[in-house]
Amino acid sequence: MSRNPFETALNTLHSAGEAGGIDLKVIELLSKPKRIMEFTIPMRMDNGEVEIFTAYRVHCNDALGPVKDGTRFMPNLTLDEVKALALWMTIKHAVGGIPAGGGKGGIIVDPNKLSNWELERLSRAFMRKLPIKGAWVDVPGADIGTSTQTQAWMLDEYEEIMGFHSPAAVNDKPAAVNGTVGSWEATGLGVFYVAMEAFKDAGLDVGCTVAVQGFGQVGGTTARLLFDKGFKVVAVSDINGGIYSKDGINIAKLEEYVIETGSVAKFPGTKAISNEEVLELKVDVLIPAAVQSVINEENADKIAAKLILEAANGPITTAAETVLLNRNIQIVPDVVTNVGGAIVCHFERIQGLTDDYWDMDKVKEKLKERMMKAYQETKAVTDEKGTSMRVAAWINALQKVSAAIKIRGWV
Ligand code: NAD
Would the pLDDT of 232 be above 90? Predict the structure, then answer.
């Protein structure tokens, strides 16, 4: 099976297009990005030498609105990865009911090898040299290797170039420069809202058991929210391994322990287990919230959960999904489960455009509304078409994008 991420994304596009009866010309259009920008950034390093960096920005499709989404600073970034992510964001925005197209970009660089001054110069240079940008065209956000700080530099550079303030031109910036509250928790909160709906549909109540792989921004937030609601989180893990307690782990105390020690490992009162064991536990709900492809051909037949919520991006390979579905394991796909981050980015843009900044209660209320809608719409298409929830989510998104493409007269 292909390991090229763009080919994988195209495979899903084609199979969902076929299952949903989407016009073939729409599928053909979506399989070719609207724009591919590749540019070089020559930059003088702290040691006086000039280094030349390669940068990308891909606009997949903007029928629903200006393109938005992340910027990766990664040493092994490829154009095919950026193209795949831009297509995937087109779908995700449509799933979340966000009036935006899909974009993605980045620089081939290892940010850990840059000094802080170099990182600032590179972030500013990316924004300066980005050929097409602005609140109504393309809104870059953060992703792997970038942060609220890089986004603040990008915004500042953009506003210096333009000569006016435009907070809606860059996403994932800190609240201090007109960002939004709630962006750090957004994805985990969204996972939690989806979990509440999916648990109901699966007949699971507060007595059910949950395992979470990954205890970072997404997994940690999700585990804490479930714990606060009274659910029994029996296992969690991070890159150093997992911990298990059949009576449930006190996630509030675990958070304090992680701040002190940097890891969940050896949390008192729990048994040490491996990351593989976390995935294979006999629990009601499994939430992979770490990295991609952790459930694959090698362990799909050992997964014992009834319901899997894909909080991470692409934690289940295509081959493993077939095995899991044949074993009647329910999967709520990443484009639904973790769309909360993209939704709050949309809220950030609304706030920047209106200069009216929301409090946390308003962010949570509006996020919950949209997460429930994304889940319910996907569920309805699943029931109507008799497909997996993943294919249903793509069909739902493709129907929205297709309607916009057609009414615009593009095909
Ligand atoms: P993070 O870096 O904050 O946390 C990742 C966690 O996974 C950490 O606890 C880390 O120790 C653990 N981990 C890393 N490699 C691992 C491995 N090989 N095995 C087990 N655990 C491992 O990252 P995050 O922001 O929480 O993102 C987690 C996933 O969610 C990623 O797939 C990301 O693409 C996806 N996601 C994140 C957001 C967001 O807003 N942060 C939005 C959508 C999707």
Answer: yes
Hey, whose CA ends up nearest to atom 30 of ligand 1?
312
- % of the chain exceeding 90 in pLDDT: 96
Say yes or no: CB of residue 187 within 6 Å of ligand 1: yes
Task: Report the separation in Å between the CA atom of 407 and the middle of ligand 1, taken as the mean of its atom positions.
Answer: 39
Give ranges for CATH 3.40.50.720 in the chain.
Answer: 186-337
Q: Known catalytic residues?
A: 104
What's domain 186-337's superfamily in CATH? NAD(P)-binding Rossmann-like Domain (3.40.50.720)
Enter the pTM of the model: 0.96
Secondary structure E strands in 9-153: 35-44, 50-61, 67-74, 101-108, 138-142
Listed in order, the ranges of the chain carrying CATH 3.40.50.10860 are 35-177
Q: For residue 323, which amino acid is it?
A: V
For the CA of 338, the closest atom of ligand 1 is: 43
Instruction: Dump pLDDT digits (tens) for 314-372.
Output: 899 989 999 999 999 999 999 999 999 999 999 999 999 999 999 999 999 999 999 99
Report the chain's terminal Cα–Cα distance, integer Å. 32
CATH architecture of structural domain 35-177: 3-Layer(aba) Sandwich (3.40)
| Closest protein CA for atom 43 of ligand 1 | 338
Please answer whether residues 108 and 54 qualify as being in contact, where contact means their C-beta atoms are separated by less than 8 angstroms.
Answer: yes
Q: Is 88 in the pocket of ligand 1 (CB under 6 A)?
A: no
Does the pLDDT of residue 257 top 80, yes or no? Answer: yes
